[in-house]
Predict the structure.
Amino acid sequence: MYSKTGQAVQVSNLSGEVVLSDDVGGATTFQLVGCRAWDTIPDEQRPHCFSMMYVNQADSYVRHHDSFLRVDPANETYDLPQFDLDSSFILLSDTFYPGLYGLKSINSPYYYITSHDDGRLGIIQRGHISNYYDTASFRVYGYNTSGECSILRVLQFLNSSVLAFG
């Protein structure tokens, strides 16, 4: 993942939070895997539901904790059903802009992954202002549906003017 300004999206080694880096180096790659909350969501959402596994730490997933994203190991949770919901997202194409994707939270309807002003990524309730649309729109690279798992590389666009380059 990269911000429009070229900042890499990384997992902080200290806190496990998903954050924007100070530069363009060291972007984190997530493996797109089957939805952890598969059994609890409606059938029509299942084809679009995924979880993002952190490739540098086995059985660890991107999840929202309160309103921020972090990476946590599934085997260290005290509430696995809640963990499964927190780490499952609906990948929707053309949500806010043509050719871009939105990642909607399973257990917080109307909440999408966005970037906060302090550089942390999290979920925020859908707003109807262009700034929200810009921070909640992603370009997906390396998405391959031919295998059991896919690699998700996301370029986040913070400004609609970038669409001309997409």
